[in-house]
Amino acid sequence: MTSTVDAMTAPENTKTATENLRASSEDSMPSTEDQYQKHRGEIEDGDILLYRGTDFTSKYIRLMTGSNYSHAAVAAKWNERLMILEAVGNGVVTMRLSANLKHHDGQVECWRSIKSLSEDDRKIMISFAKDQLGKEYNFFQVAMFGLKLLFNIKASPKSKKIKGADTQYFCSEYVTAIYAKAGITLGIKLGPRDVSPEVLCESEALKQIFVIRKG
User: Fold this and answer.
1) What percent helix, strand, coil does the chain show, rounded to 5?
2) In DSSP terms, which residues pair with 88 in a beta bridge?
């Protein structure tokens, strides 16, 4: 027969056991730093990082672009450091990938061209990407994504190739332009300004290599 005291303490014991199990599970999960160190040496110049952000701004971008992803960037080794080049709210910038991961909530995935890139391709791409540093963010085009979704307007197939650098970029437009500079279309039949992070994800010319940060 269960005593009154045992009946009162049983729920508390169950709660404690549940908390211990949850803590043990969390401790066994690799940290962002562990994931980064595990995959750091595998990341190559030109690899694409796709972000599934969970903060308010990321959710807004996902809504406006109709995407499961909120951001895209390109990886580059620069002066012995692993950097990313990206178009964000304050323009086209670069920062260490390790620092970048600490500033983002949600999952971050590394994607790569299925077709091997030559060293010349990589040099052209990264050189072009660096030349765009300091340019403004393309807020207007992100808003246009939202309007197209609202009114169910499909993007038109691209009618011409890029003939030089733009003056403004949003994230996936910047990534697409970097690849286009080396003559690589990634199988996407849209101009860079109509490419969302989701379009990059759906490209048959890209494959996910690993998750560098779990959501």
Assistant:
1) 45, 25, 30
2) 91
pTM for the whole structure: 0.80
Which residues have CB under 8 Å from 132's CB, separation 6+?
85, 92, 165, 169, 174, 177
The parent domain of residue 65 ranges over: 32-213
d(CA 145, CA 70): 13
Query: What CA–CA distance (Å, rounded) separates 113 from 82?
Result: 19
CB 88 within 8 A of CB 171: yes
Q: Give the count of domains, the chain.
A: 2
- 180 lies in the same domain as 125: yes
In this structure, the answer to whether residues 13 and 26 fall within a common structural domain is yes
Do 168 and 137 contact (CB within 8 A), yes or no? yes
Strands in 206-213's sheet, in edge-to-edge order, are: 91-96, 81-88, 71-78, 48-53, 106-113, 206-213
Sign (positive/negative) of CA torsion 182, 188, 189, 194? negative
- The three-state secondary structure class of 92 is strand
Per-residue tokens: 215: 């959501």
What is the full DSSP assignment across 145-211?
HHHHHHTTPPPPBP-S---S--SEE-HHHHHHHHHHHTT--TT--B-GGG--HHHHHH-TTEEEEEE
pLDDT tens digits along 166-214 = 789 999 999 999 999 999 989 888 877 888 899 999 999 999 999 999 8
